[in-house]
Amino acid sequence: MKNPAPQTIYLSDYTPPAYLVDSVHLTFKLGATDTRVISRIAFRPNPDATSKEFFLHGQDLRFVSAMIDGAPITPDLSAEGLRYDAPDAPFVFEAEVEISPSTNTSLEGLYMSNGMYCTQCEAEGFRKITYYPDRPDVMAVFTVRIEGDLPVLLSNGNPVAQDEGWAEWHDPWPKPAYLFALIAGDLVALSDTFTTRSGRKVDLNIWVRPGGDEAKRAFGMDALKKSMAWDEEIYGREYDLDLFNIVAVDDFNMGAMENKGLNIFNASAVLASPETATDADFERIEAIIAHEYFHNWTGNRITCRDWFQLCLKEGLTVFRDQQFTGDMRSHAVTRIDDAMVLRAHQFREDNGPLAHPVRPDSFVEINNFYTATVYEKGAEVIGMLKLLVGDADYAKALDLYFDRHDGDAATIEDWLRVFEDVTGRDLSQFARWYSQAGTPRLTVHESYADGTYQLHLRQETPPTPGQETKEPLVLPIAVGLLNENGAEVVPTTVLEMTQAEQTFSFGGLSSKPTASILRNFSAPVIVKHDKTNAERAFLLAHDTDPFNRWDAGRTLAQDLLMRMVCDNATPDTGFLDGLAAVLRDDTLDPAFRALVLRLPSEEDTAQALFDAGHTPDPAVINDVHETLKLHIAQHLQDTLPRIYADMSVDGPYTPDAEPAGKRALGNAVLALQSKLDGGKAAAQQFASADNMTQQLGALRALLQIAKGAHELAAFEAQWGHDRLVMDKWFALQVSLAPADQAAATAEKLTAHPDFDIKNPNRFRAVFGGLRGNTAGFHHRSGAGYDLLADWLIKLDPLNPQTTARMTTAFDTWKHYDTERQTKIREALERIAGTSGLSGDTHEMVTRLLG
Ligand code: ARG
Ligand code: ZN
For the Peptidase M1 alanyl aminopeptidase Ig-like fold domain, which residue ranges apply (predicted)? Predict the structure, then answer.
């Protein structure tokens, strides 16, 4: 009864729940292998129901007993849950079940992590705790009693009472079961308070297990208070309980979880100190804390009717955390970072066998749809909506959304309707962004005559699995025109494209302008524009839109890399001089200069080659990237030491954007310099670094030139006691190993005493490192494919969710030559043919094999 036969679920089959829940009382009698869960649930028939069937989800539960209105019942039990011929009137259902947290390695439901009891219920984990209508449109008020011999016992909401060995919690806000949480363990808190603008004093805690992590909590607390203030100021949203708890957990499948009043975090997504976390870690932690906090309104107060609506909360909450990061740091740099992530992950997803709409219309396992498309493209859709309606109407629409839907389990239709009601617009065409998969290609042609400049635009979305034909989308295209001196003759204007082909005219010009198209990445599309390299170099030097300025350099580099691969081109001085000019321009933000200096990844080049009709060869790509880096280093030889020196930061470390930008540029320069000085400067930086950004930056620079054995050992000796730092040690060696040694390095590390297959962070360090080493993973021997398949087969029975997620390493397999395709197909078929394979992984390999 362990693996219920996987079933496809369709959005179009949605029906309202047969029964609603008014209140839930849960009692947990904790035991590592024998936790008793006693439930008392007040049900009433749903007046809007279309069925009267009383069904409660339940999975891996040992049934003890059940009663209705105090009378014992004998329900029908199956691997999926419990059925009973229940009264067509309000009643109280009671049940007792037993579960075994310590043997629950799926990290879903109630499980144990280093002696701590913890939960993860989104999306469908609550059914592993007790029998319940485990669907987001059933919202209820929870009261929870925890009995256990542990000092700290936490659940959602506010504490009611507690004493030695027990605690009671009450959450006044009705919520779906996926927001339930419980924590029990020996924990210590960093405490603080925040007073909301209406004067509510909120107690804040960040909990960790004692013994090392205490010093890593302060930054998260600061980020939490900033998030609370920002949501009040920008969205008018106040916190609504007297207490907000965050708990760091070592074993966690995802980043973090927004459980009401009790956010649970992967330790890597909340704990940071200057010595152990990089600037990038600090920035990511700030964003995740904000993200989970913002869910309190966009996700918890207003939740999703069903899991097809996941983007309703995730797209909006990602959009909000991106706005927050822009406000806290640099808008330009944040936008560039977000676009890079979107292109690297979401465009990749959209271009392969796993492509799906922002709102999918079917799934087998919803955990497989926590994707870049739902999250990041979902956020882009909201950004486009805001651009189309304008900031003022966006604010009005959001106010209406919070007003109208507070307490609801809502849909994308509800979301779009508030915008229609506020603006009077018809958003039916815009709604295609939610239902149509694939990345639109925007082809640009220009013409100029008699003072009039015309942009001829064509949009086309390639077919995706299950969607052969595509309709035109509404594209907001931000455009500016520059004259030959780089002055803006037409400031940024948002063109609204709705047809497959459309022409836009700009009159009254005195000469042919240079167009800067899709400013600030105003729509998630791929622009195909045959600009000359001279025009690109001009935009790199002059564009007033920082995103497009960066993108011009990016396109130049990508184009050069592709010509190096296909035509044996050598780097032209035009490109190298353009880079040098940006690098030497002290008026530019160092963080921005670091981004311009960063080349597209080898994976980016592989994707770009495939898009242009070539079969990428990862070994050739790897060579070409190395060659270009060497050319850049040689061309900039005289400048590098000066910039490196300029980027030194005085005073104690802070993770703020300004010094972080300097360190980013310093590390980028160091990596280039290492190609020339054999790693001398990098070894020095490693030896003298007092923060992880510089220590790791130096180690990376050394490993990139096949040096650093001594430093790698020193790093392990220094950080062997720190799990999160050791994850970096594991990941870096694999991701930077020479291509022919990548699989062997990963395999060797799986034999390291600190490798733990059950810890997702550690598993991802090694195998995420492997997939991130494009030339290594795709080495022609096939060793990378085989090793990953072996380990996914081992992981699947323990942790289906993380296994399924890691199969996405194979999603570009059809881009490669027949030899590689054959090897990958064999690996995928070997996984697919494993007996007892989880539904999660089965769905993924089936889609991948197409
Ligand atoms: N709602 C969480 C977040 O985005 C993600 C949790 C997903 N967990 C899962 N098992 N699918 O913040
Ligand atoms: Zn989220």
Answer: 438-529
